[in-house]
Design goal:
209 residues, 11 helices, 0% strand, globular
């Protein structure tokens, strides 16, 4: 099978079909990454990310996986977009500010159960650095050096960031829960809950397909 990097090189060489194939391979992951943070703007950010892949040849370190490369670019596109939203107000600091703070209007990813919507709401109230770390860990399976490369932090900091993210997420879940059943769910297995939510997310087709 043609690798992701081979498709990227073909796309850089002018093969539009290779670019379309690369988008189809990674559309679901990119959509999950953007949609709970930017709602209807997710499709536009996906396109910006894919185009940035073509322009960013010099930024790639050969030992990284393609997914690491892809999400590092997606993260930069996300942060740049949110900083532009805040430009006329206060500087956006992803270590301190959440999607709520940024003034973005994210629409919930489509899920059926109330408790799963609750998880999205709680995630959106975390500082963005923590939200990104948890979502990449739980939904995309990034960990260790891959996660460190995407987040641009030392490997030794990854565990502490995930730990802080989980602790703060649980506090927000407890505040947002409206019933005893919802509160009980927040005290359960967060990893299993995250897997359930990922499986329930309804994903659109890539634009142009």
């Amino acid at each position: 099978m043609v690798t992701d990097f081979e498709l990227l090189e073909a796309w850089r060489g002018g093969d539009a079909k290779a670019g379309s194939q690369l988008l189809r391979r990674h559309f679901d992951s990119l959509y999950r990454f953007f949609a709970n943070k930017l709602g209807e703007e997710a499709q536009d950010l996906i396109q910006r990310t894919m185009l940035a892949l073509v322009r960013s040849r010099d930024r790639f370190r050969g030992e990284a996986s393609f997914r690491t490369y892809l999400f590092a670019i997606a993260r930069n596109e996300l942060y740049g977009h949110l900083r532009r939203l805040r430009r006329e107000r206060a500087l956006f600091d992803p270590a301190e500010h959440s999607i709520h703070d940024a003034g973005a209007s994210p629409s919930q990813l489509e899920v059926k159960r109330r408790e799963n919507k609750l998880l999205f709401e709680a995630l959106s109230r975390l500082p963005l650095d923590l939200q990104v770390a948890l979502e990449l860990f739980y939904w995309e399976g990034l960990e260790g050096q891959e996660l460190a490369d995407v987040l641009e932090i030392p490997l030794g900091t990854v565990k502490s960031r995930l730990r802080r993210g989980k602790e703060l997420l649980k506090k927000h879940l407890e505040r947002l829960a409206k019933t005893g059943a919802e509160l009980e769910k927040t005290r359960g297995d967060l990893e299993q809950w995250a897997r359930e939510v990922k499986a329930e997310i309804e994903l659109p087709e890539p634009a142009g397909d």
